[in-house]
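Summary of Year 1 activities. Much of the first year was spent building the evaluation harness for sequence design. The harness presents a backbone, in tokenized form, and records the residue chosen at every position. We chose the following record to illustrate the format because it has been used consistently in internal testing since the harness was completed.
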């Protein structure tokens, strides 16, 4: 008897949880991803600021599933899904399925201003992180060469757009590494101001956190000399800088952390999408009329008990993945499926060395205890054998502020063309 074929699109937290949840199940699994590795995105910004190497937060799928005999990995891109025919179209082949799990993730959203994409760096994959790292280092090199011209300040000004966890964590880490690790290597820049500006359109940072922790995060960033601009709406971004409300900020360095939209692959399903491009799923995470097709993670608009969409967090995607794996393994009839219920175990964000905020089941934690908790949680979720190496690199960086990753790739090309 033929085993059911389970096709999983995307090897992020959700897709990985499905695949691992089906280990030893009597199914044939095909995992498709456009990269050959699982990426631990919560630590991606640490690659961007050169405190970790890419091998610390990424593990090849073939290594992860080396001992799982019922899975096959395909390095390719899925271009379309035919729900009625139950096939997925790859670049060079077509695959049929009995169960399909769509976990394609998301991409940066520029809210209708696609032209901004050419002037900013976003942080979604290893290519982005390495590009940001090289861009930061290149900006310091360029600034020193431009001295004493006033244009040098544009290369020493960094604007982070978006005050969510990614923006807050990146701003804090950049403030520390720029002043304590990079600037000491540039003697001519030691007397010049490094400006790090965090722009947030809301009235506070970390909107999903309790107000007390939002204010604590703001004070921690300001202690690191990060300028926090609240209620500040970006209206234009060019190669010369950022227009924010009535103020123009000259800069050659813009990091975009202001929002995401679901993968364009979902449009091929001919389903109604929400404003963020997500598919509204049922209580069992399947799509309307197709109980064998599931959508999870950033691609799914899944409502909680209050009718609000669940946030695009790794914890949400992992729980959804385990839930879908359980459904596929036991294959109950659609009407008898127990609805998915997300168990919120809290959220946390780090703001630099020994600074963090966390809300764990209603308890607010900040400072060193929150930072230690953040470190333990993130290391525990790393895939592969990188945990000890990451811990040692963190300890070394904590004590010395030194990093061995400050190397500019020979093929690096700046995002913006120099005009001087």
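For this record, the design step produced the sequence shown next.
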């Amino acid at each position: 008897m033929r085993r059911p074929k389970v096709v999983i699109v995307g090897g992020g937290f959700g897709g990985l949880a499905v695949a691992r949840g089906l280990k030893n199940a009597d199914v044939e699994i095909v995992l498709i991803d456009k990269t050959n590795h699982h990426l631990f995105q919560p630590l991606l910004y640490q690659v961007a600021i050169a405190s970790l190497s890419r091998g610390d937060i990424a593990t090849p799928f073939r290594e992860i599933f080396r001992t799982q005999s019922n899975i096959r990995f395909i390095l390719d891109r899925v271009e379309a899904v035919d729900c009625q025919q139950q096939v997925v179209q790859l670049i060079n082949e077509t695959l049929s399925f009995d169960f399909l799990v769509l976990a394609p993730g998301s991409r940066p959203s520029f809210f209708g201003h696609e032209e901004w994409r050419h002037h900013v760096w976003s942080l979604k994959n290893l290519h982005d992180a390495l590009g940001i790292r090289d861009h930061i280092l290149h900006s310091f090199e360029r600034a020193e060469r431009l001295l004493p011209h006033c244009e040098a300040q544009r290369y020493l000004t960094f604007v982070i757009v978006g005050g969510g966890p990614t923006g807050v964590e990146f701003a804090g880490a950049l403030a520390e590494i720029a002043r304590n690790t990079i600037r000491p290597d540039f003697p001519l820049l030691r007397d010049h101001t490094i400006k790090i500006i965090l722009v947030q359109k809301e009235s506070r940072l970390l909107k999903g956190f309790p107000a007390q922790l939002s204010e604590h995060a703001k004070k921690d960033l300001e202690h690191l000399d990060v300028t926090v601009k609240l209620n500040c709406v970006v209206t234009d971004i060019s190669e010369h800088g950022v227009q924010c409300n009535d103020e123009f900020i000259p800069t050659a360095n813009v990091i975009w952390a202001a929002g995401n939209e679901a993968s364009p692959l979902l449009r091929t399903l001919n389903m109604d999408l929400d404003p963020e491009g997500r598919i509204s799923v049922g209580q069992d995470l399947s799509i309307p009329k197709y109980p064998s097709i599931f959508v999870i993670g950033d691609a799914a608009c899944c409502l909680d008990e209050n009718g609000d969409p669940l946030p695009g967090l790794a914890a949400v995607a992992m729980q959804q993945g385990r839930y879908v794996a359980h459904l596929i393994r036991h294959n109950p009839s659609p009407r008898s499926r127990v609805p998915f219920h997300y168990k919120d175990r809290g959220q946390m964000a780090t703001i630099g060395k020994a600074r963090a905020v966390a809300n764990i089941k209603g308890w607010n934690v900040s400072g060193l205890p929150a930072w230690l908790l953040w470190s333990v949680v993130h290391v525990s979720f790393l895939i592969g054998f990188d945990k000890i190496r990451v811990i040692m690199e963190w300890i070394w960086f904590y004590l010395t502020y030194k990093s061995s990753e400050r190397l500019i790739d020979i093929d690096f090309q700046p995002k913006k063309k120099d005009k001087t």
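The longest helix spans residues 126-146. Quantitative recovery figures across the full test set are reported in Table 2.
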